[in-house]
Each structure stands twice: as structure tokens, then as C-alpha cells.
Design a protein that fits this description.
With 255 residues, this protein is mostly helical. Helices cover 80% and strands 0% of the residues. Its main location: cytoplasm.
Length: 255
């Protein structure tokens, strides 16, 4: 009888433990679904604010999630930090702080998901921004890394016209590099980065093919590159398109 009672009590305890375990699983599962839903909700809000040009509100929304493990949130936070740094109302000290913050967010995004094309794209952009504060040696030294991340982003998403455009900008910048900077680069590095206006032009056209008329700056650089190649007829065509592009953003107005 004692043995039977002990066994019955053991079964009851086991059943109780099992029920507690199942309840824990159910609650945990609900929490995970709820957390996932919350991330999607924040991303939806963020994309709406980005599309509306609400830079400061977007940053305030996303910076609350700076400790998130979600790469989609983190690269958006990096972009928001960078966009905030670009505003004329942002002080020089804040611009620098935001540039370094943005780079850290993209690093974390890549750690969380190496296959996220946007994380690679924004890592390249943010690394380039930080180079502006660290001098020409760092900027040139980072150039290959920047291009590698842009190329990886294109591998992961061949239809992303913006990243293709950025490779074009990379090529244009090194094709246009002044002689004295080339001399410094040759002194500092055994094989400094080089490119040509023809290579830049190829990427700008590839970007346009991927998404026609997607970006005023791509139209501008097509025109500028044709000017560098002394083709005034084609330069006029693309510069006219850039001039007539509807100005939705501050950058469009500058273009």
C-alpha cells in the first residue's frame, strides 16, 4: 500500500510537472510569436516614416530597438542614423557620433545575418562615411572592403539598383582621384584601388537597367561620366533627365 501510494503520488507529480512544462512551452511560444509580430510592426512603421521623409521620428522609433538581434531592424537603424547625420540642423559633433553609431549597427546586423544584402550595402556606406573623419589613408585602405560588401550585396540581390549605383560611384571616385592623392595612395599601398570612367559608366547603366529612373543621382552621374568621356550629346540627354526629375527629397533638389 505504501509503495502503491508512493507510485500514485509520483505519477501525480509527473503529470503536474508535465502540465507545467506544457504551459511553459505554450507561453514561450506565444511570447516568441508576439515578439516576432512586434518586430514586423516596428519595421512596418519604420518603412512608412522613411517613405514620408520623417527622419527624426524614424530615428527615435528605431533607436529604442538598438539592442535588437534582428538584422532588418538594425540596418534600418543604421540608415536612419546616417540620414539624421545628413540633416543641415545636425551639429558637426552629432554628425560624427551618428556616423560611428551607424557603423556599429551595421556590424551587428551582419553578425546576426551575414546573408542580409541590405546589411552589406549599409556597412559599405557607413564604413565610407567614417573614413571622412579618419583621413585619406583610412579611406583608401577601406576602399577594397567597401567594394567587396557592395558586390556581396549585389550577389545577394541582383535587382537592387542602389547598390549597383554605389559601385559606380566607387569607380567614378577612383577614376577622378587627383594626381597628388594617387601619389599618396601609391606610397601607402602596394596596389592602391584604381578604376576608369568607362567602368563607372557601365555600373550606372546597369543600375538604370535594373530599375529605370529610380534615382536622380544616377541620372546625374550618367551625365557627368559622359562629360568626362567627352560625349556631350549623351551627357546632355542624361543631365536633362536629372534636371526634370521630380524633386521629392533634399538630395533631388541638390541634383
Amino acid at each position: 500500500q505504501v509503495l502503491r501510494k508512493s507510485l500514485q503520488r509520483g505519477v501525480m507529480l509527473s503529470a503536474g510537472s508535465f502540465l507545467v512544462y506544457e504551459a511553459h512551452k505554450l507561453i514561450s511560444g506565444f511570447a516568441e510569436v508576439h515578439a516576432s509580430f512586434k518586430v514586423e510592426e516596428v519595421i512596418e512603421q519604420a518603412d512608412y516614416l522613411y517613405g514620408s521623409g520623417e527622419t527624426e521620428k524614424l530615428y527615435q522609433l528605431l533607436v529604442q530597438h538598438k539592442n535588437s538581434d534582428d538584422a532588418e531592424l538594425l540596418w534600418r537603424l543604421a540608415r536612419a542614423s546616417r540620414d539624421l547625420a545628413q540633416l543641415s540642423s545636425t551639429s558637426a559633433q552629432q554628425k560624427k557620433q551618428l556616423a560611428y553609431e551607424a557603423l556599429e549597427y551595421t556590424k551587428k546586423a551582419l553578425e546576426k545575418n551575414e546573408s542580409n544584402f541590405a546589411a552589406h550595402k549599409w556597412y559599405g556606406i557607413c564604413l565610407s562615411d567614417v573614413g571622412d573623419f579618419e583621413g585619406i589613408k583610412t579611406k583608401i585602405g577601406n576602399a577594397y572592403i567597401i567594394k567587396e560588401h557592395f558586390q556581396r550585396a549585389v550577389e545577394l540581390n541582383p535587382k537592387d539598383a542602389t547598390t549597383i549605383h554605389l559601385i559606380g560611384i566607387w569607380c567614378y571616385s577612383f577614376a577622378e582621384m587627383p594626381w597628388y592623392q594617387r601619389k599618396i595612395a601609391a606610397t601607402l599601398f602596394a596596389t592602391p584601388p584604381t578604376s576608369t570612367f568607362e567602368e563607372a559608366l557601365r555600373y550606372f547603366h546597369m543600375a538604370e537597367e535594373a530599375d529605370p529612373n529610380f534615382y536622380s543621382k544616377n541620372l546625374l552621374y550618367l551625365g557627368k561620366t559622359y562629360l568626362k568621356l567627352n560625349n556631350k550629346k549623351m551627357a546632355l540627354l542624361w543631365l536633362s533627365k536629372a534636371k526634370d526629375y521630380p524633386a521629392h527629397t533634399e538630395e533631388d533638389k541638390q541634383v
